[in-house]
Structure formats: structure tokens, C-alpha cells
Amino acid sequence: MIPEAAKSLLELGPSFSPTQPITASVSRRIVGCLQGLQNRLRYRLKQDNAGNVEVSNFPKIPFPQRYLKQHSPNFEADAKFRIFATDVHNVLCRYKNKKFTSNLTPAQKEGIREVRNLVTSGRVRVCVSDKGGEFVILPQELDKAITDLHLQDETLYRPSSEEEFTKQYRKLNRTWVHIAKDAHLKPSLIARLKLELPICPVLYLLIKTHKLSTDDLTSNDPSKFKVRPIISCVDGPTDRVSWLLNLVLIQLLRYVPAHLSNTKMFLDHLGSAKLSEDCVMESFDVTSLYTNVSNDSAIQAAHEFLMEHHNTMNLYGLSIAHIMTLLKECLSCNIFRWSGRYYAQIRGLAMGQRLAPVLAGVFMAKIEQPVLIREPILYRRYVDDCFVICSTQEEMDKCFELLNQQSEYIKLTREKPRENWLPFLNVEIHLHGGTYRTKWFRKPSSRNIIVHYKSSHPAHTKTAVVRNMFHTAKSVCSGTEEKQESVRLARSIAESNGYVSTAPYVKRKRHVATPTNNQRDTNPQEKIPLCIPFISDELSRSIRLCLKKSGLDGFVNLVDIPSDNLKRRLVRNRLYDRLCLTSNCIICVSGRAGDCMISGTVYQISCKVCGENYIGETGRPLCLRIREHLEGKRSLRKSTPLGAHRVNNHSNNDFEVQVTILAQETDIATRKTMEAFWIRSRCPQMNRKDECLAITNELASYLDLCQLDPQRD
């Protein structure tokens, strides 16, 4: 039974972000971001003054940098930054003293504690539904039974081991380094896309609540629940290499004849179709597409597309042979964990693998070929949903039969119009007498959850969400009557999410501001992003005024980062799996289980004998860096902090250590700034004087906000 306070909280939706005050940890993040901004400003203005334009073959790489290059001082950049940093400090001090107002009621705050207690006590698992977008609460025993039943499919999974997982990722790393060097890619890129100690992917299931009957909702029979299996590959062996491969392979989709990328593309094709008076329409759905894809056929299809179209594609320095070798290696890394047990997926693609959507798309191109040869009036597909218009019902039946004959595992179901209306994507189509009408569609099972009005998101974000919903509701409609109906539906959805007055979102008056001198020559995409925690719209406006006052508004774009939403706070995909598998782990014993596998940390090592400390930072999993420290201690290497401490302070006698995580931050500039602040505050005796960033005068004043001294932390 879920307590009422917990229900009140969960009804806010997974995307709801609680407000956050200006705490010490928030201030530390802001300081780190400011340090990174100063370094990038120095580089940007130096390049601008020299007339250099940096052109990169790659888009922005979404993985942390391994190294930080400190750029030399620049008078113009430092002068502007000094004004900006001083003003931001004054703003933070002013707002820190204001009374904090939470967007959660006392009951909802209690609800967070209640839900967390239910999870940690082993009673429930919190997840999000497959398509409804709402929270789903399952008894853990039922959740385990559902997953166990799913894993019993021996055509899909087989038992595996940690040793096999290790062997796979090491082979992938060797292959990646060899191919990348052969392709003459930059060493920094090679290192950035290689994971020395990847996390084993983990399986979790999304419940298809839209396929549950009323009786099924209260059932304890695991066979009653339809699920979507997801294998989370974040920080897994293939995560980074597959990002590069996906940049190449996703270009193939524009050569897939039936591929749809969005609703607008579908409506454009529908509008240009030559409809006959007696034509019929249906939608086909591929059953469990990803897990039923033939990997060999998908690889072959990708190779054929590459051979035909590589001259019009950007291969990012790789050859076709390089791409195919890496693709095969990535698909061979098929091991995951659940509840401490290792499994290998032996058929199909894992949903959660970056390459799955594009490979499924090119694979379906082969499946669809016999149907396209028959030239139906319209055949288009969005992932696993097909929309078909044929001249006769007999022709429609033939197309359906052909699609089901192309592969042993690929099977399709069909849906016919009801009262001449057929849903597809987020539209409903009415076809009669050779003419069609369209209107906006929302599934009856959908909870229609959008960002709640009270969520701690910037006002412009919430405004954009609601305006885009109204825009979509109107733009997909073919006539006035359909538009009015769709707008009424959009209004009811907005109101159910706390937007009482929806009038401002229906009609939009555009106001184009006159750019300042600093803004005229800078494309918004070319500005340096300054990502800081979102506190309030009022504070963000004040910081933007600081940018304008300092003359940096033409170079810097302020990006507001909301606090962790309820999904990040409550959902645990690795609920049944420990990240730390080391017995008597010296890192996790003083923190949480799994801390040793966290990447991007500022840490403190304390000698248990004399109490002296060492503070450092690492972008790798913490256990790797601590292992290096312990090896230096074991071998008495005086070039290492623990080795020197053992020789100089303990006459070569061994000592035990305690490891504490002081901060977690993936951005290297922010992390090194935090390291420098902690070292300045705690003066650890094992550190050398020259092994951290120098704190600039512009940021030294922030020490009081960061509260780094031992007594106040």
C-alpha cells in the first residue's frame, strides 16, 4: 500500500524538479563552471584576435575530457571575467540570504522519504511506464519474478560470466585503439573514446501499462505483464565507440525509402500521395523489433548501404572496413548483468544500445523491399510502426503477408480504422472517398504528463513545452473543426499539469530584441555555454545582467540546469546489482556501495595512523586511481604521495588508509577547480605545492560560499 504522501508526490510526474537553495555544493559547482569559463574565454578571445576560425570535423563530443589545457592570461578576457565574477558573487550573496521557498508541500517532502524507505527496505521498485510516462510502483518480489520469467527465453539469452565480460571489453578496446591509430585519428580522441574499466550493462524492464487490463493491475502473476527489456549501456564497453559509429551509420537512414523521422515528414508524404476513391489504409506494428533483428542481416544491409552511398557521407576519417570491424565488435559485446548474474543476449539488438535504432532501420529496409516493389499508394515506417495505403483490400492483405514471410522472427500485427479513423504516431487519419482528414492524437492510456507548472524549470522552458504542444496540436490538423478539438485537448492537458491560464500559450506575439554591439556578430550556437544550477528565474535574470554589464553577453550563453528531477531521485535501474564487487573495499566502506566505480571525483586519502591527508582528482573510476596510490605505497616509491609518506613519516612501516569522496564532477575544469579549493582550505600535508590549479583572485572570494573547511562541511 502506497502512503498518501507518496502518491501526492508521484502524481507530479518523473520530470518534476524540486527547487534548490544556494547551498555550499551548489556554490562549488558554480565556481567550477566559472573557472572553466575563464579558461575558454582566454582561448576564444585569443583565437578571435588572431583571426583564427577553428573548424572541427566532429560535433561536440559528449564525454569528459581526459586532460585540461590551461590557457595563458588574456588581458581582455580576464578584465571582462573579473567584472562578471565579482558581480555574480554579489548576486549569490544577496540571494543566499533570501528566504527559501520550496515547490513541494510538507506532505510531498515526506513522500520522497517514504518512497526511498520503501525501496531501500526491499518492498518496492520504482520505475517509469513504457509509454504512459507515469511512475510505476511494483513489489520487488513481483518485479524479480517478471524479470526471471523474461530471462528464461533460451532463444534470446544464455548464462555468462564476469570473465567473459572482461575478455569482451578488452578485445573491443584493443580493436578500437588499433583501428583509430590506423585511421590517424587524434590521440586525444582515441583516449577519450576508450573506457579502461567500463561498467557492465544492466537489464531493467519497463512495464507496458497500456496493455494491462483492470484486473491485471492488481495481479501477482508475472505472465500477465507485458514488458520492454532495456539494457542500459551507459558507461558500458560500447558506449563511446558506438557513439562514433552512430555518427556515420545514422546518415544511412536518409537512403532508406520508407524511413520516417517525424510527424511532419509523414504528413508531407501523405499530402503528396495520389489517393484513389476506393483506397484503404492500415497500420502494421513489428512485434519486438530490436530483439528479433538478425544481426548478420543488419550488418550486411549496413555494408551494402555504405558501399553504395559512402561518397556522399562523412565517415569521420574511418574506412568502410574500419567501420564494419568496429560494428561487429560492438555487437559482440552482448553481456549484461541482473541481480548479480551475468547473461549474454544471443539474438537481436539490445534496446539501450546506441546502434540499435539505425541497424533496425537498415535491416527493415531489406524486409520491406518486396512490398515497395509492388508500389503501394503509400508505405512509410517510423521505427517499428508502418502506415500503409493500398488501392484495394486484397493488395493490403498481400503486403501484410509478404512482410511476415521475410524473416523467421520478424512478425507484424495490423490495425484497421475504427469509424474510418486510424491513429499513427501522434495523429489520427480519416480516409474516405479518396480524401483524408487529420487531427492530433493522444493514446487513451497516456497520462499526458508534461513538465509541471510548479516544477523548478526556467519559465522559458515551461513556456516552450506548452507552446510547442499547442503548436503541434494545431499544425497536424487538416481543418478548423479538427483544430478546435485538438486545442481543447491540449488545453485540458496543460490544465491537468498545473497551467491554469493557457491563453498566453495559444497565441504568441513575437518580440525581436535589438542586439547589442556584443551580440551582433556572434551566432548563438557559437557562444560559450555557462551551465549553472537553476535556482530561480529572478537569479538567472540577474546573472544575465552581469553578463551584459561585463560585455560577455556576446560570447557567453547562460544555460540553466534544473535540479535532479523525481525520476533521477527515485528510479534505480541497478537496484538489484552492486557496482562494487570487491570484498573489503576501502573506498565503499566509508561511503556507499559502488562509490569506487564513480568516475569524475575529488577525493581525500587519510592515513589512519597519523591523520595526514592527500587530496586529488580523477576522471577515471576512482578505484583505478586509488589502486595506483596503494601500489606507490606498497613499493615505497617516493615519487608518489603515499610512498613518500610511508618512507618519510613512518620509517617504511605500512599503514591503512581511508578514502572519502569530496565532490563528484565530470567536467575536468570544474573538478580541478574543486580540487584546488579543497587543497587551499584543508592544507593536506601529503600534497605538493605545485600539483593543482592556482586559484585566481577573481574566484578566491567564493571560498566563503563553498564552505570547505572541515568544521563546516
Automatic annotation (TrEMBL):
Residues 209-436 form the Reverse transcriptase domain. InterPro entries: DNA/RNA_pol_sf (IPR043502), GIY-YIG_endonuc_sf (IPR035901), HTH_animal (IPR058912), RT_dom (IPR000477). It comes from the Eukaryota. Signal peptide: none annotated. This is Reverse transcriptase domain-containing protein. It comes from Ancylostoma ceylanicum.
